[in-house]
Design goal:
582 residues, mainly alpha, 1% strand, binds heme-as, binds protoporphyrin IX containing FE, binds copper (II) ion
Length: 582
């Protein structure tokens, strides 16, 4: 029946508030740990932006940071792994559990937190003692301490633990409601975790077979090209492990948050299923300039990479139309009026819509990267960090900040310290990242290398080498400074709201209220959410229920894509001793 489909988070589960307290507390722990990592990472980022602007802050930072590369490793690892993994492993369990009205396996969920938290501590030791400035890609033959690789192993392994939790939740729900289609938020979360489980294999093999034994002294040498290929098997799909949770919020929550509805539930499912399939086989588009595998495969990789953009194009249109639908309901008229009519004063909404706008450019840049010939121009220049600061650094990060703006009150029963400052932080982040990314892309086209401590050069040399990119590099530095302000504003709100929390005594703010306190925002208010194309009558949605088949197909496609790439590498093994250059 139509009403049996709870795209909404049911109201009833807010009822006995205390029974849910353990879930809220665990979710809060994930959120706080993740955002604490980002706080450290985001304080370092602007120093890197200043570096490109010719300002070398590092001599004044010793002994805390000894080199640029130590800072860059901490920045990349904390932001790209720790922040994202904690937020995601929290959200992708909490939201489905609330959607289904079931209790997740708390022991596994806490185990996930514990494994990743222990891993984080080991990484912090290895990075802050300056033994492991191996950057976020930890490519051998750069060599770090065993703490680094062991910590990373724990973090990756921990991040896979939501998968069994979700499988169990879905099985229990299906047992009660046989024949029905998995509710949307759960479907999207499970697809994300299935994708990530297939993806994680590469890094786990690299760590367990190559890097841990090497760092522990059981082996003397390592094969760098095999390691890089294993890394990118994980390292490309990881970008969708960062993105899909943001999509969960855009598809599953935002349309209601802005007072409208999701215009197509089956399209959301299709986009997630396609992301699962296409994310995996394309990892080696990060290796267009690596030697040793056939040009035919490089061409195929270009085609596959363009395919992985498709589900995001579907998303752009589906979410775009949902925004327009809500905007027109709110009285927006004309060509652009629907857009300005969105509830821009709500910091959670503003952050997420600004994140989307930025992602249009991030996606376009990605298509440039993925085109083999064009990749030769941008690879290893500042263009690439320009690209990923408007994808993971904004589409994902700013969305997660937007989620935090409703979730903190929901979890703690405490209103945000200041909604206006929250709103300001979202706009500052958007403005700072836009200026920063424009500068980074532009400087990259002048050939300014990424991962380069350029501010260490004598001024005359810096000017001679990078003079052409001067204006672009100034934009980078200015963007970095705006981002510093954004970070301070955000953490004033985040920490300020936590400082006054009384989790155990106050009841949670129900979803409806956390979403702005207005009736029309209610996720859990009585009536079904009213998706236009209803999944229970959609053949597509029914077909996409076969997640086991889709996953098996993806595993096969991935194997097919990687055999021809690995084959020559395994025939021509190389052995390198470790380097410690910084
Ligand atoms: Fe990428 C490098 C290709 C997406 C992250 N990428 C990176 C690195 C990172 C990263 C971290 O093929 C560097 C790693 C390193 O350190 O070396 N990327 C792509 C492609 C896509 C893509 C084809 N990347 C992402 C996402 C990331 C991410 C997402 C993180 C979250 N990327 C590459 C390639 C490289 C690369 C090469 C290697 C470069 C090199 O040489 O090193 C696609 O998935 C993008 C598809 C996206 C779209 C945009 C859809 C727009 C949407 C917003 C809609 C807006 C709305 C608002 C609704 C087609 C969904 C409407 C309102 C209105 C008013 C209109
Ligand atoms: C690298 C600045 C936030 C993830 C960089 C670089 C700059 C930078 C200039 C390039 C350094 C180089 O190639 O030498 C900033 C600023 C931020 C910020 C000003 C705002 C506070 C973020 C966020 C994320 C992120 C939110 C992810 C969630 C990364 C990663 C790298 C990086 C993964 C690559 C590190 C490497 O090459 O090993 N950042 N960033 N950054 N950033 Fe950010
Ligand atoms: Cu990629």
């Amino acid at each position: 029946s139509a009403t049996a489909f709870p795209t909404v988070l049911p109201a009833s589960i807010d009822a006995p508030a205390d029974a849910l307290a353990p879930q809220r507390r665990t979710m809060l722990a994930f959120l706080v740990w993740g955002f604490s990592a980002l706080m450290i990472g985001a304080m370092i980022g602007p120093l890197q932006a200043l570096n490109y602007g010719g300002v070398n802050a590092y001599p004044s930072l010793t002994p805390l940071l000894k080199t640029y590369y130590q800072g860059l490793t901490i920045h990349g690892v904390l932001n790209a792994y720790i922040f994202t993994f904690f937020v995601t492993c929290g959200l992708l369990v909490y939201l489905p559990a609330r959607e289904l009205g079931l209790m997740p396996n708390m022991a596994l969920w806490r185990g996930c937190f514990a494994a990743m938290a222990l891993g984080t501590l080991m990484l912090l030791v290895a990075m802050f003692d300056n033994s492991s400035s191996v950057l976020w890609t930890f490519y051998p033959p750069l060599k770090g301490s065993a703490w680094f690789y062991l910590g990373m192993t724990l973090v990756v392994a921990g991040s896979l633990m939501p998968l069994p939790i979700l499988l169990d939740l879905r099985a229990r729900w299906k047992a009660r409601r046989p024949g029905e289609i998995t509710p949307l938020v759960t479907y999207m979360s499970l697809t994300t975790m299935l994708m990530w489980a297939l993806a994680g294999g590469g890094a786990l093999i690299e760590l367990v077979v190559q890097l841990n034994p090497w760092a522990l002294g059981f082996t003397d040498t390592v094969d760098p090209i095999v390691a890089r290929t294993l890394f990118w098997w994980t390292g490309h799909p990881i970008v969708y492990f960062w993105l899909m949770p943001a999509y969960v919020s855009w598809y599953g929550l935002l349309s209601k948050q802005i007072g409208g509805k999701l215009v197509s539930d089956p399209m959301a499912r299709l986009s997630f299923a396609l992301l699962l399939i296409f994310s995996l086989p394309v990892g080696s588009h990060h290796q267009f300039t690596d030697p040793g595998f056939s040009p035919i495969w490089r061409g195929i990789l270009t085609a596959l990479t363009l395919s992985v953009a498709l589900p995001s194009l579907i998303t752009a249109f589906t979410i775009g139309l949902s925004l327009e639908y809500a905007g027109r309901l709110r009285g927006g008229r004309g060509f652009i009026g629907w857009f300005t009519a969105l509830p821009w004063r709500d910091p959670s909404v503003a952050a997420q819509v600004l994140a989307m706008l930025t992602f249009i450019f991030g996606g376009a840049g990605g298509i440039v990267n993925g085109s083999w010939e064009l990749n030769n121009i941008v690879h290893n220049t500042t263009w690439v960090p320009g690209h990923f600061h408007i994808t993971v650094g904004t589409a994902s990060a700013l969305t997660f900040m937007g989620v935090a703006f409703w979730m903190l009150p929901h979890l703690t029963g405490q209103r945000l310290l200041s909604r206006r400052l929250a709103l300001a932080s979202a706009w500052l982040w958007f403005t700072g990242m836009s200026v920063f990314a424009l500068g980074m892309h532009w400087a990259g086209l002048h050939g300014v290398p990424r991962r380069a401590w350029v501010s260490m050069l004598p001024r005359s040399v810096y000017d001679r080498v990078y003079g052409d990119a001067h204006l672009a590099l100034i934009l980078v530095a200015v963007g970095g400074c705006i981002l510093w302000l954004a970070t301070i504003a955000f953490y004033t709100v985040f920490l300020g709201s936590l400082a006054t929390r009384r989790l155990d005594r106050r009841p949670a703010i129900p979803f409806a209220q956390a979403f702005g306190g207005r009736e029309s925002y209610a996720l859990d208010g009585g009536a079904p959410v009213g998706v236009v194309a209803h999944p229970s009558v959609s053949k597509l949605a029914r077909a996409l229920e076969h997640l086991g088949l889709i996953t098996a197909f993806t595993a096969l496609a991935t194997a097919a894509a990687y055999v021809p790439i690995f084959w020559p590498f395994l025939q021509n093994a190389t052995a390198a001793h470790g380097w410690k250059v910084w």
